Predict the structure of Oligosaccharyl transferase delta subunit.
Amino acid sequence: MLSRPLALLLLVAAAQASLLTLHAPRVTTYDSTGNGIRTEILKLTQKPAIPMAVGPTDSLKLTFQIIEEGDDSGKGVQPLQTFLRFYDPHTGEEGIQPLRVTAAGKAKFDLNMAKPPLSIPPTSKAPLEVTLILGSPKHSPVKLALFDIQLPESQPAPQHPDEPSFHLLPTIEHTFRPTQKVPARAISALFTLFALAPWGVLLVLWSQVFPGAPRLFSPSILPFTASLGAFELLLFWYWVDLKLGQVLLYGGVLGVVTIFTGKTALASIGARRIARK
């Protein structure tokens, strides 16, 4: 007596070995009045040589029954999954249409070109290949090439008024201004001397006030000299980085300091004049 695991393996192998096939597969095309145009009894070993042509006002009907291969009792099988696949070999477009199968294994598919299903892919001048796909846990999977179908060529989709906005726009090309010309070094040096000239004038005036060597570094005059130098540094900083509001703020603070240091320096100069007299 076979063991239970071995019996289960044999049962599964026998189930997988059984194949599904079709009984009496038939496809018919009809015109707009319902009159039949063409009927084909499908052979599973070979597709019809001429595609089934369906015009804009025509329809098509496919009927068949799913049975086990070699079973002549006429008992149908209801697979777990049944699909029709429409495939365009030229464009690679495809569509999958699920089919409803009864408990007796009978199924049908109606195609009305007045309202085609969404599973039909975009069509071209080339016919579509129609394939039946069957899936069942108790049987081996089946893929049957049924026939080719010639459908009217798809019309291009209407253009949306905002469609051009989603296309690539021309590249924006920015023209930069030419590189700023730098003046000659001689001219830069000349204007540097003009900028430093007030300090020369200040030194000359101080030499007139103090005969002999100027006492710029005396404790009473040095703060005033430093405040004037701070103004020069502030102007240079403004030229490099600062904004006008910042310059006015810092300049106002330095102005107050310069006023007090200037009064101190003038008082010191006056006291020395009095002492000389």
The chain has a mean pLDDT of 84. Residues 67 and 74 are 7 Å apart (CA to CA). The longest helix spans residues 244-276. The chain is about 35% helix and 25% strand.
